[in-house]
What we know:
By secondary structure, the protein is mainly beta. Helix content is 10%, strand content 35%. The strands form 6 sheets. Strands 7, 8, 9, 10, 11, 12, 13, 14 and 15 form a 9-stranded mixed beta sheet that branches. A 6-stranded mixed beta sheet has the order 1-2-3-6-5-4. A hairpin with an 8-residue loop joins strand 16 (302-313) and strand 17 (322-332).
Amino acid sequence: MALVDSGRAIGAVSRLLQNRLTTALGATPSSVNVSIGGLGPSTQSNPRVNLFLYEVELDGHLRNVTLDEGQPPPLWLVLHYLMVAFDADSASDSDAAQNILGEAMSALQALNFFTLDGLFGGSDIVAPLNSNPDSIKVTFDSATPDLLSKLLLQRADEPYPCATAFQVRPVMIAPAEPTAYSLLVGVDYTTNSIPGQAAVHVPVLPSLGPAVSRVEPEEFETGTSVTIYGNDLNASGIAIQFGGVEFSATAQRSDRLTFVVDPFIDNGQEISAGSHPLAVTQLLPSGRRRSSNLLVAGLLPRLSSAIATNVLIAGTPAPPSSVVGVITLHGFLLGTDGDDIYAALFRDGAVVQMYDAFVTQSDQQQLRFTIPTEKAVAQGEYRLILRVNGRQARTSPTVVLTSRPACPLGIRRRWPGCNRSRCGCVAKYPGNGTSAAFPNQLTAGWCQVTDHRLRSKVSTCCVTGILAAPTSRATSLPPI
């Protein structure tokens, strides 16, 4: 889901209502058209229903609800509509108009909860509303004379139209500001290790029953040994159910048991990273399993590397010298298309930019996302933060986003595979032909990249690091 599209959600809701009502009313004998806009005079000669959005209200009940911990809450809106029916003569107080209004109200009541399935020409509707986490619900309001008088400004001698009011909620518009993710406390990112259990705070969960009271650690990667505390945990036939996957106990006592999160789930087919229910079950003589109360534990994604490719200077309207590119992540349980995945570039103690559109793999071992022009960043080194279904990977590898420099020798081509600060043939040094930066030097020879004769006192080639023997020419040149 692309949260950036949610800024067009208000208009998308109006088009969704028009779409659904057109489909529902098209099968009625009245052959009713559905329009969006004001309530002024119309030249249409056919029966119609007009949708008028007269108020956009902030939903106070969802004001502080966020999509993911660390993100600012989005705008949760309630949209108020007035629906007016007109007959073939554009009259809104006739019995024909009343019949049309009744058919439209019946169609809305039947829909109740709106889905995005089966829309005709609905690409401009699906994208802004696809990120909405809840179904859109329609609730009817009272179209009182006081409301109609405020909205319609009728003259004293004109009757009120045949109309009803309703509201649509919740409609989400995601914020544009960066998230407030941070690196995890208690993790040494220089060595990608946890310096002892004392550095990690594990809160004690309240007990939901007599069997299980807490799990330690509360979140873990595959291969981790996990301890569950409670009562009567040394019975026979004990197994651990975690997110629908069964594990065997490796050690049991009356007040605790231990199991290992088997790395076989790294295949990405059994479970995704995130928060999952955890319970201890006991096999009864009848063959049934008796389950303890449930705890919630977190399975972490395991991020091993982040590689930036195709890093280029961004064009307008990005800031000068900012870059775009593609970042590929490797690891385990990195998420599928159905998971909530967020990646953030972190530098100087703050998130610089956040991304939420990914190309996934079925084995969850690779993610790829593109840095678009509207989210270009300054060149330099960043830590990459990955969160899958609300759980953050413990490792945050370094990503270098730097565009490739031009050739210092004036050759207007970039050599494939050149990953040094220079790009071209060779760097020349004065003196006796030695340099600490280029220890393997030759006094003369042929550059294997440019096939040019090298003068004396030169260093190794900055592209391949290899010079041909002084008496022979290079026979294998890489493509340009």
